[in-house]
Design goal:
By secondary structure, this protein is of the alpha+beta class. The chain has helices at residues 8-19, 23-28, 30-52, 105-116, 118-133, 158-161, 182-193, 195-204; strands spanning 55-57, 76-81, 86-90, 93-100, 137-139, 166-172. It has two domains: 1-91, no CATH class; 99-204, no CATH class. Helices cover 45% and strands 15% of the residues. Strand 3 (86-90) and strand 4 (93-100) form a beta hairpin.
Amino acid sequence: MGFTGWPAEALEFYEGLQADNSKSYWTEHKATYDNKVHAPMVALLAELEPEFGAGKIFRPYRDVRFSADKSPYKTAIAATLEKGGYIQLSADGLMAGRGMYMMAPDQLARYREAVASDRTGNELVRIIEAAAKEKIRVTGHDQLKTVPRGYPREHPRADLLRNKGLVAWQDWTPAAWLGTRRAKDRLVKFLHASEPVADWLRANVGESSA
């Protein structure tokens, strides 16, 4: 069966899980998760695979061993795409991301060098500005308080230098389209529009050698 969107029951499932993150709630509503949340994600990833590579769905269970919050279940379903991309559905709606969420030390060094360079740094600024016109935010998930050592505080791209990663993000609040194939259309549009960010990272940062 092809992807036809996520029904209202999917969002209602996560609204309930946020209110009662317990094994009893999970067990009672497991069929809803399987049929209304997980199954549509499987169908979506199958349709995206020819262009964006195989998808991998994250486990719904939280690792609470080192967390103060012992709630056992994640309040969103999320998946990654082999060729780059992140998809998430929660009670808040649909979200997509693409980039390098957290860079290894060698990647971070190359990223900073590329941002500091006028040629590649200004190229990144233009990419970010173009993405903003498509309502895509390009940000770092975490930032240093000041520019890293060795770079001038007054550098014209100081904010980018402070990033510890670089990710393109877009999110959509729930509406009727989420229960249709238009949900896939929005994700595909985002993945295409964020390709310049991924290309810049591949060209200037690359994989970690660690």
